[in-house]
Amino acid sequence: xxxxxxxxxxxxxxxxxxxxxxxxxxxxxxxxxxxxxxxxxxxxxxxxxxxxxxxxxxxxxxxxxxxxxxxxxxxxxxxxxxxxxxxxxxxxxxxxxxxxxxxxxxxxxxxxxxxxxxxxxxxxxxxxxxxxxxxxxxxxxxxxxxxxxxxxxxxxxxxxxxxxxxxxxxxxxxxxxxxxxxxxxxxxxxxxxxxxxxxxxxxxxxxxxxxxxxxxxxxxxxxxxxxxxxxxxxxxxxxxxxxxxxxxxxxxxxxxxxxxxxxxxxxxxxxxxxxxxxxxxxxxxxxxxxxxxxxxxxxxxxxxxxxxxxxxxxxxxxxxxxxxxxxxxxxxxxxxxxxxxxxxxxxxxxxxxxxxxxxxxxxxxxxxxxxxxxxxxxxxxxxxxxxxxxxxxxxxxxxxxxxxxxxxxxxxxxxxxxxxxxxxxxxxxxxxxxxxxxxxxxxxxxxxxxxxxxxxxxxxxxxxxxxxxxxxxxxxxxxxxxxxxxxxxxxxxxxxxxxxxxxxxxxxxxxxxxxxxxxxxxxxxxxxxxxxxxxxxxxxxxxxxxxxxxxxxxxxxxxxxxxxxxxxxxxxxxxxxxxxxxxxxxxxxxxxxxxxxxxxxxxxxxxxxxxxxxxxxxxxxxxxxxxxxxxxxxxxxxxxxxxxxxxxxxxxxxxxxxxxxxxxxxxxxxxxxxxxxxxxxxxxxxxxxxxxxxxxxxxxxxxxxxxxxxxxxxxxxxxxxxxxxxxxxxxxxxxxxxxxxxxxxxxxxxxxxxxxxxxxxxxxxxxxxxxxxxxxxxxxxxxxxxxxxxxxxxxxxxxxxxxxxxxxxxxxxxxxxxxxxxxxxxxxxxxxxxxxxxxxxxxxxxxxxxxxxxxxxxxxxxxxxxxxxxxxxxxxxxxxxxxxxxxxxxxxxxxxxxxxxxxxxxxxxxxxxxxxxxxxxxxxxxxxxxxxxxxxxxxxxxxxxxxxxxxxxxxxxxxxxxxxxxxxxxxxxxxxxxxxxxxxxxxx
Length: 988
Known about the structure:
Helix content is 37%, strand content 18%. By secondary structure, the protein is α+β, with helices and mostly antiparallel strands. Helix 3 (176-183) links the parallel strand 7 and strand 8.
């Protein structure tokens, strides 16, 4: 897990509930609400509240109601926050506060700028709904958000003179709120052009976090299809929509950050994905909730949101191309940050009138100078100029600079680019007059790395916020200049290092495979070969994001007269995503540096943002230090096991169902041979000895074949980004191989062949525990019943008087109850049936009674592992009842989804046995159906787990049909069908 480092944010919030968005404007007003964020009245004058204080109705310490007749005066630009699963509208407070604070800071830094305004932050109150559990909830929320946007825009009727009335709202969505933001475009009540900029935080864009319901899976497919097509036309519905996805990294254990990648659906011209660890001035990972309050992250977000605003335009955001440039400058670590907003005019520098030094032609130059300088000329101001001639050698092509001086922030050092019209004199004449330009170079921030540094911007637990500035330029871009001049206004305890290098010589590519790293690791002594400011260790084959790595660095202190200006640090860059991480003071970390990165999800084609694969490890060292580094890179085996938990946590459910199906299959198969229905636990124990190991071996073989084939497909059939950012694929290769790529655990490295067998064996243990748990409950309850009751054999053998259960429940499902509730009741009823069957078997002591009990227990275990597919939606229904919302979704009243289960349980309650002639006659077909279910479980169930419920429904329907064949009508129909089949076969 990435190290923690978030600072807490503080504010004085006030929340104003807009009652004007009522039932007259939306039928969802009784369920949801709209809030406006402002600072507390006690801290700021009433003019900042946008509403006259006399019109407000206080409902809490920080809560106010704005009555419908009240006049709301807004002068900013509208922004809307959408919370995520079980989230609160009040989570907007940190983002809104930072947006307000950064607006005023930017006004002080840059002065009043045209087109700027503070943000009016609204938030939708979704009552903490479990939006990750039900697709219909997302549709309801999207519908309400569209209606809220229309209402928000109506509040700006009284726009200031000369400023156009806003026609769009800036959207910020957290977690599933980001999916709601993407869904609003697909709704019939979407106002075209009302949303042009979306920022999502920790949003699972690619796959739902819990894919246990078909509704949410279908909604994801619908959204993805719409967004893929929305960019195809220059006048499409998404042609002017930008989307930026910010993920928290490995600190977020709620949502897999790999799922936040949007490069499969959004062209780079319209959006990108980035991690908080990559954002300049942030450089820290955030957990799922911390991304909303982390001071470093929200500060960067607040500045970016303010920077994209343009009140001179009706949509209140900059044009798309300019907007994306601004967003990249704030969120991508490689984006350039200019020293100042304007490039100054050339200034003349007469060397005869200033103190200056012509420096020797060296590859590396460092300040402060450790050798006595030859000073020429004098200046009253005390400024001194160090003059470095730009090399024109072909082998040197790059200029790099690293400094602890914050240019333009009171630093006494300035970098100038200069030239002269005359040829450079051999004696470097001091009579030269140079024409120089300031602020022509641009820099990127990097964190400070000193002996006390622990994490970026921190020394221990103390936040310092200190940074360096780094410049890298091709010398071919500086051909119009002859010199780099460092102006020193006064001696200062800052360093500045300049280096001229051949960029290709600083990149060392090592083709080491994952298997080689597992066996012995990668050891590099005396690295780099010669002192270099920035050296890149490129590992193109180190592209498996499922593994964690450890890098140990050994370094000695500088020897001789020079002192080390900064401690070695590391920048880790991934080519598949915009993911950079800085690790400071790396040589002091005795346990090594953790190297981990994200990648594409297993079931999705790899999208490379660059031509290279793998990762780059950039080592920053003081080139004036003669000591070299020793590197040892190994696979962190225990850390890798920890990384496998999040992506595979829900897949265990699929493997447990495989175990259940295999066990029930064996029970039925053995019963069809010897007529005895053995206990579930007995068959489970027998299968552990050999049958489950055989199945595990089969899973391993499938995994190996799949990984080898998929590995080739990555190179034969890669998805590439065209100039316009659209996907281009080889469809004829994709079509026939897609089903195999989606099988089991998806595409992965061959070294992970063992994952499926291991997960299956873990599932065996889980099923054994569940069986023991359920069996203990049933037997304990049966023991109590036998101890306190006396029942005659006649009463025991009579059928349960529950013939109307199925009819009653199916009627209730059609009008009020969700079908998942009926399934939960059927499960509880099955427990009662199992207890009753146990009591009957113990008192009657015949094989038929024991067969009935063992069959009921097997079905109880199967139903138990179906509960996860019903429980999430059931939680949504219960939650809605808790907030007084009694309207249910139409998809919840599908009788056909639960009728087979209810009818089957009713049949067991009425004494249906497994020894009937019809059941035995069709035992082979029953087993074949279970085999077909197993095949599907292996191929698709991990990705489409929600299908398990419907596969089981089909099998249970077959058992219900067998029961029907035992009736008089069913027997006659069966006989007629058999005669027809026999006649047709005879004629042939």
